[in-house]
Amino acid sequence: MKNYDLEKRRLVLSAVAIGIVVIYIIRLFALQIASDDYRKSADSNAFLKKIEFPSRGIITDRKGKLLVYNQPAYDIMVVTNEMAGHLDTLEFCKALHITRQDFNKRMLDIKDRNKNPGYSRFTQQLFLSQLSDKDFSAFQEKLYRFPGFYVQKRSVRQYQRPIGAHVLGDVAEVSQSDVEEDDYYQPGDYIGKMGVEREYEKDLRGKKGVQILLRDAHGQIKGRYQNGKYDQKPRPGRDIQLGLDADLQALGERLMEGKLGAVVAIEPKTGQILAMVSSPTFDPRAMIGKLRGKHQHEMTLDPAKPLLNRAIMGQYSGIYF
Questions:
Q1: Under 8 Å CB-to-CB from 153, ≥6 apart: which residues?
Q2: Distance between CA atoms of 105 and 111, rounded to whole angstroms?
Q3: In this structure, are residues 76 and 257 in contact, taking their beta carbons and an 8 Å threshold?
Q4: Fewer CB within 10 Å: C terminus or N terminus of the chain?
Q5: Residues 131 and 30: beta-carbon distance below 8 Å
């Protein structure tokens, strides 16, 4: 009887062991063969996710006249894992017209997780933004000498006429709070900061695309992962047509030159704003490119406060007709 019980226990234990082995085999098969997600996760260092930025929606006036459009610009991106020990820093700095101190500071900021929480040495990080066509052309010729650095094409805002700065608003690099509030944004992205650009940000910005590229052990790009099966194309932002009349806006700004105050013209039948003038104003083109910070600082210190939108923030006795 004892021998029978012992044999029965052995059979039960054997069955359990076989069952566990079968479960492990099935699970391993699902993870390593059937599940592409596991492969992508396990080999994440072999992938380079290249973001493709959408074109931002253009802005026109009530008659279809162009007010705000896009022009090409180029960002310099870096994958720090690929540059270690291989970069001629002096030559690199000369190519971009920056100092060694600028280079060191930018690299420290990139690796500082307080300033750049999404930092990974295996993914592209923004090193320098908004290179002009001229600067980009000169740098591109030497790009092959700088392992770990890539060029990412994007666009910056441009203004057809130097009018409507307060109404149209501007686009600038995201703050840390912008990144925390909306996971669409990553450090180095751009967002509408004022006016129409801010109010219609989610319509104007579009949707990012992504290319998943394969890299070898040396970090060299070998092509698209699974022939682009998992790539996503960018979706352009929506164009916006305003009720604003560009010619009337320009006239109002000319009439208000040298004065402090505001003019707002409204279409009574529809309630559309035909002109919204705040004086003094500024050229919206001063708020794009590398000199944006300098111009903004100067206007902040200006006692006339050109950045203040008096049309919506000031209180005046009105003249109605």
A1: 53, 72, 73, 74
A2: 10
A3: no
A4: C
A5: no
Amino acid sitting at position 162:
P
177: Cα separation from own chain's centroid: 14
Tally of helices (H runs) and strands (E runs) in the chain: 13, 12
Would you give per-residue pLDDT tens digits along the chain (321 residues)?
A: 555 566 666 666 666 667 676 676 776 666 555 445 444 443 455 777 788 899 999 999 999 999 999 988 888 999 888 876 678 889 999 999 899 999 999 999 999 888 887 788 878 888 988 887 778 888 888 888 898 898 888 888 999 999 999 999 999 889 888 988 998 998 888 999 999 999 999 999 999 998 888 876 666 666 777 777 888 899 999 999 999 999 999 999 999 999 999 999 999 999 999 999 999 999 999 988 777 888 899 999 999 999 999 998 865 555 544
- Among 182, 186, 177, 188, smallest CA distance to 201 is for 182
Cα separation values, 107 from 70, 156, 282, 290, 298, Å: 29, 24, 34, 18, 28
Q: Which residues pair with 278 in a beta bridge?
A: 262
**Cβ(301)–Cβ(309) below 8 Å:** no
d(CA 320, CA 280): 22
Q: Give the ranges where 161-236 is alpha helix by DSSP (H).
A: 165-168, 176-181, 195-199, 201-204
Lookup: tokens for 21: 């082995």
C-alpha separations of 266 from 16, 91, 254, 257, 320 in Å:
81, 57, 18, 21, 11
Amino acid at 118: G
Phi-psi region of 302 (alpha: psi -120 to 50; beta: other; left: phi over 0): beta
Question: By the 8 A CB rule, do 206 and 55 touch?
Answer: yes
pTM strictly above 0.85: no
Neighbours of 219 (CB within 10 A): 17
